[in-house]
Specification:
Elements lengths: L2 E8 L8 E8 L14 E4 L12 E11 L8 E9 L11 H10 L6 E11 L32 H13 L4 E6 L5 E9 L1 H20 L4 E3 L16 E4 L1 H5 L1 H11 L3 H6 L5 H4 L14 E3 L6 E3 L1 H6 L4 E3 L8 H13 L1
Parallel strand pairs: 1-5, 11-12
Antiparallel strand pairs: 1-2, 3-4, 4-5, 6-8, 6-9, 6-10, 7-8, 10-13, 12-13
Helix pairs in contact: 1-9, 2-3, 3-9, 5-9
Bound molecules: adenosine-5'-diphosphate and manganese (II) ion (3 copies).
Amino acid sequence: MPIQAEYIWLDGTQPTPLLRSKTKILPDFSGAITEMPLDEWGFDGSSTNQATGEASDCILKPVFQCPDPIRGGKNILVMCEVLLAKDASPHPTNTRAALEVVAKRHAAQEMIYGIEQEYTMLRLDGSPLGFPVGGYPGPQGPYYCGVGAGRVMGRDIIEEHTQACIDAGLKIAGTNAEVMPGQWEFQIGPVDALAVSDQMYIAHWLLHRIAEEYDVVISFAAKPEKGDWNGAGAHTNFSTKAMREGYDAVVAACEKLGTRVLEHVENYGHDIQSRLTGKHETAPWNKYSYGVSNRGASVRIPWQVARDQKGYAEDRRPNANCDPYTVTRLILETVCD
Ligand code: ADP
Ligand code: MN
Ligand code: MN
Ligand code: MN
């Protein structure tokens, strides 16, 4: 039977790119579908803010493939990079290509990441799921890791999405309901920079796709509700081999992150100043700090890492709408260069 391959890529929407995808029908393949050789493909970049009408073709280069848990069978999902048609060089929107160079340069340090992806479920009118129509729910408190009607909303979507990530072979590490009603989290990792980012985008695509069936919009906005409501982040946990073996390397990594503060924050997602205010478990965006167990610091060293004198650190600054290719590249450069 022919196989459906869903080619997925990031478009040129500013300030935060959107995912796009289209389906390619391929002849049956007898081997493991994750090893099926895939051709490059193309799309109309003038419809995705990636090209002009006169020179509209962009190239899709497959970089990661996994079973498609929605279509099932031998169907696959394919994460792609975008290349320019004129010379097959990386398109300006292709942030993965730059990460690949840095990841190769520092392969010996064996950096791995676990990213905690927070997001908000919205109704089609833009209001958060769990907010009464035209109004506000009770203040934050009972929602984080809650159970029961009125405390959690959208659990069907979480259940489906988590199983879909598992069936796709992604390294999903866990899920939880977040502090603001309608807000949730899942984690991917720990795996290397390219893997965590490719898998994260496949997980995003699955989340959007599953929520479609419920008429729910998935928002990665950093501060979806103004006022006394938590923003949405993408805490990025990271460790080199040296950090996993000794505490001095953990502290040294935290110190190094303090040497390029603005460059990180400016590339950690749109509207970061609205989220990193110093309130709601954040540190102010322009004041770098790190500390053990401190959820009000830019970078937290988990308590068990201090106890074990080895492990990892958590950069709490990236927004939910950050680009993991860019975030993991910056951490690699700053900690390892
Ligand atoms: P939090 O307490 O901040 O909510 P989570 O349990 O949500 O933490 O997420 C922790 C993440 O850290 C997980 O994705 C996990 O895979 C990742 N992680 C665990 N150990 C390491 C490590 N040594 N290096 C990098 N990431 C790690
Ligand atoms: Mn978490
Ligand atoms: Mn969280
Ligand atoms: Mn966290």
